Amino acid sequence: MNTVLCYIAHKCDLTKELGIFACTMQGLIVLTIQARVPSLKPPECDKFTSTCEEVNGGKAAMLFTGLYLVALGVGGIKGSLPTHGGEQFDETTPNGRKQRSTFFNYFVFCLSCGALIAVTFVVWVEDNKGWEWGFAISTINIFVSILIFLAGSPTYRNKVPSGSPFVTILKVILATSLNSCNGRNSRGDDESSSNPHSSRKESEEGTEKTTNTLKCLNNAIAKEPFHSSLECTVQQVEDVKVVLKVLPIFACTIILNCCLAQLVTFSVQQAATMNTKLGALKIPPASLPVFPVIFIMILAPIYDLIIIPYARKATKSDTGITHLQRIGIGLVLSIVAMAIAAIVEVKRKKVAIHSGLLDDATKPLPITFFWIAFQYLFLGSADLFTLAGLLEFLFSEAPSRMRSLATSLSWASLALGYYLSSVIVSIVNTATSRSKHRPWLYGGNINHYHLERFYWFMCVLSGLNFLHYLFWAVKYKYRGTGANH
């Protein structure tokens, strides 16, 4: 299989994309085999004592190999596909920029479709038919996706990667530090300031000049580099400047993902205490995160077919709403979502008090879980606006050599947000447990939590984060072709 894929990749110039697809499929094959073969499975848990024997040795190695291969492949797919898709459109034309904006919108839509199938159908198959069937379905899907991807290869516009963006960034930063410490003058600064004809000469020769943004990095371009391997071009320096300029915008989206982390933690715990019946059907609380997925699937076409056409007419721009405006709308929606979550929690606890079930979290409260859906609606909308906006922003602003790295920051923001959420919960519990007070988020009964205070805290934190975002967004100047101002 690897030989076939390598040959196809070489012929179609799709080495990176097919490599990460193959990595994911190999990981799923390993997991499917382990789930299928009894001798490779971990020992079954004791049904009476609910104790499980820890897996180790070769079985553990096989399990983690499969998991890490899948994680590596999925990370590569999510980092590469947005860039590959965005490059299929001509960004020098208004129609191409419109189509590119639509692509990023429906990219998030398709991610939501996959998540919906995963948390409903695949989970049901795993619970009722066995884990091997769930992994097998995923393996077949990734194989079919490879065939579909290859079917379009004759029409793809491919850009062959030239070097590693990480190497370029490290080289420029290291060259800047060493040249500055050794007092080596910037070649670009010296020539442009001392020679009045330098600008004209550079224009005639087709070379570029360094900009005044992050001027300290201009020291990377020295007349006599510290070492020949650290010799940097103007283009490399300017590329690194662009990446560093978008980092504050990226950082401001991490708090939003902290809020999203609540959807799969405290919101599920809240719903578990409420009436989760939908007619004769009882909805498992763990399946409630499907709500934001459904909301995204509904809102994405509405946004693209209704909101954006009106916005384009009003603003006279290609995308209707600029990338930074779209991210900002998402951040505002996350503030509203946390405020609604706090209000809903106050209502839920009042129902628990009035019904005499405050100390008994095992019985469902006489309040429908649909109240939780309001915060899901706003957080799902926030995710759609911010993720799609951030992907397009990073793609359009990043240098062509660093677009995959830039769009990968969106998923790094998600990972950092979920990790930071756990850190914030630990800090809140530590801070509120002083002076013999009960921690806000501790104990076996969620009715005794001060969850509404935590939600208000997240609301205030999101508000401060939005102000921080405004500071950077207002100062930011677009550089991409046809970018909105």
Describe the structure.
The chain is mainly α and 485 residues long. It has three domains: 2-155, no CATH class; 165-232, no CATH class; 246-475, Up-down Bundle (Growth Hormone, Chain: A). The chain is built from 16 helices and two strands. The chain has helices spanning 2-12, 15-36, 57-86, 94-128, 131-151, 165-181, 187-194, 198-205, 234-251, 254-261, 266-272, 290-315, 323-354, 370-397, 403-432, 451-475; strands at 277-278, 281-282. Helix 10 (254-261) packs across helix 15. The longest helix is centred in the N-terminal third of the chain and has 35 residues, at 94-128. It starts with a helix and ends in a 10-residue tail after the last helix. Residues 1-13, 188-207 and 481-485 have low confidence and may be disordered. The chain crosses the membrane at residues 103-125, 131-152, 246-268, 288-311, 323-344, 369-395, 416-434, 454-474.
